[in-house]
Design goal:
The protein is mainly alpha-helical. The protein has one domain: Up-down Bundle (Substrate Binding Domain Of Dnak, Chain:A, Domain 2), CATH 1.20.1270.360. The protein has 4 helices and no strands. Helix 1 packs antiparallel against helix 4, helix 2 runs antiparallel to helix 3 and helix 3 runs antiparallel to helix 4. The longest helix is centred in the N-terminal third of the chain and has 22 residues. It is elongated. This is Ferredoxin. InterPro entries: Csp_YhjQ, YHJQ-like. It comes from Vallitalea longa.
Length: 113
């Protein structure tokens, strides 16, 4: 499952979910910027970026088996949960889908920690 080694196989599900979550958050970020009520989405938009970047860092930490990967994943789960709640407040399809992806990522990150 790893790309060049099998050392990270134990992390692969979480790596995949974090990668997917980062992509979902960036896509949702872009879609939110184009919504008529963008001003009301200010907190959600900033949370989307924080979540996406945290997920990207989690992928990096797990891929290199960093010393604090598990602690990082715990914080990532917290941020993904927060992002999911923010997205759930908006009823458009992209936010609802993003909320689901964030929840799944938080579940995987919690398994890691």
């Amino acid at each position: 499952m790893g790309i060049v080694t099998t050392n990270t196989d134990k992390y692969q599900m979480c790596i995949d979910e974090c990668s997917k979550c980062a992509q979902a958050c960036y896509e949702c970020f872009k879609a939110c910027l184009n919504e008529a009520d963008v001003a009301e989405r200010k907190n959600c938009i900033s949370t989307l970026i924080e979540c996406a970047q945290m997920c990207q860092m989690s992928v990096a930490h797990m891929s290199m088996e960093a010393k604090h990967a598990k602690e990082h994943c715990k914080l990532c789960a917290t941020i993904c949960d927060m992002c999911s709640k923010e997205c759930e407040m908006f009823k458009d399809e992209h936010c609802q889908k993003c909320a689901q992806v964030c929840k799944k990522c938080a579940e995987e990150c919690n398994k890691m920690s």
